[in-house]
Amino acid sequence: MSLRRFQNASTIPSEILGDHLKFRNGRETQNRFLKAALTEILSTYSLEEPKKHGLPTESILNIYDKWGNGKFGMILTSNVLVDPNNLEAAGNAIIFQEGESLERRALFSHWAKLMKKDGALAVMQLSHAGRQTPEFVNPTPWSASDIQLVSAARNTTYGKPKALTTEQVKTEVVDRFVYAAKYAYECGFDGVQLHGAHGYLLSQFTSPTTNKRTDKYGGTIENRQRIILEIYDAIRAEIPPSTGFLVGIKTNSVEFQAERNNIGRCNRNVYSL
Ligand SMILES: Cc1cc2nc3c(=O)[nH]c(=O)nc-3n(C[C@H](O)[C@H](O)[C@H](O)COP(=O)(O)O)c2cc1C
């Protein structure tokens, strides 16, 4: 997190957009223009060969070749999923141990290289869709609790989710995020952003509307956010701040509020990297 130079100013000079932005671990952006995460749904989805789900295609690489020449301060990828059975959409890019291959590593490494061509920091957004996985992809996805998504912005139906056991929180979620973050680091990305917004799994844990757990991951806000801190600590155990690798989160202010409607996606964001 950087120090704010204009804490209480009513007007802020636009020249600040051209300034560097320095993070606590020493990394700097060349300016303050950020390309936000925008899902492309342009990766592979293979019914015959699930191991080949989520390979970035030439179309994605082509777009990032353009953005990578745009002199951005930071470029975020679209949401890259950490579990092939818990997707935002068929066609998401995915990093998962079962799909490990030289081909996948080469494609993700090439993706990072294109993003960084003009000096931008390349940050991969990591997500797990949980109950917001389309029903045709998986009729019984994971979630914090077994509360089904009853309506959403798009014309998609969602199955009844299964609540992760306390042990599965580690094996099915924390470990997958750590694997993907390490993969991103090894492929040359400068950091990861955890997707903790828009009704996806991490916000299913933080929101009291979708988290009715009675174990250490439910109840108080400290418990509901525990999974996020565990993911952060586990990533940092593998990739310490001294490497320069950034670990951030995208969160959503309204999903923390009690008694929200059960509506899933919601686009009020707070960025914190
Ligand atoms: C087509 C489209 C795809 C998006 N995909 C993602 C995504 O993959 N991950 C994410 O966190 N936000 C996604 N968003 C949300 C944007 O990153 C952003 O938070 C949202 O558009 C609000 O920002 P704005 O007020 O600057 O438009 C998407 C938005 C659009 C319009």
The CA-CA distance between the termini, in Å, is 6 Å
CATH fold descriptor: TIM Barrel
Each distinct ligand: flavin mononucleotide
Total number of strands: 10
What share of residues are in beta strands? 15-25%
Description:
- Residues 27-239 form the NADH:flavin oxidoreductase/NADH oxidase N-terminal domain.
- GO terms for molecular function: FMN binding; oxidoreductase activity.
- This is NADH:flavin oxidoreductase/NADH oxidase N-terminal domain-containing protein.
- The protein has six helices and ten strands; from the N terminus they run E-E-E-H-E-H-E-E-E-H-E-H-H-H-E-E.
- With 273 residues, it is α/β, with parallel strands linked by helices.
- The strands form three sheets. It has a six-stranded mixed sheet with strand order 3-4-5-8-9-10. Strands 1-2 form a two-stranded antiparallel ribbon.
- Helix 1 (58-67) runs parallel beside helix 2.
- The longest helix is centred in the middle third of the chain and has 21 residues, at 166-186.
- The protein is globular.
- Mean pLDDT is 91; it is low at 266-273.
- Flavin mononucleotide binds next to strand 4.
Short description:
This protein has 273 residues and is of the alpha/beta class. It has helices spanning 58-67, 102-115, 166-186, 201-206, 221-224, 226-238; strands at residues 21-22, 28-29, 34-35, 74-81, 121-127, 142-143, 162-163, 191-196, 246-252, 269-272.
Observed structural traits:
single chain; 273 residues; alpha/beta; six-stranded mixed β-sheet; 6 helices; disordered C terminus; binds flavin mononucleotide
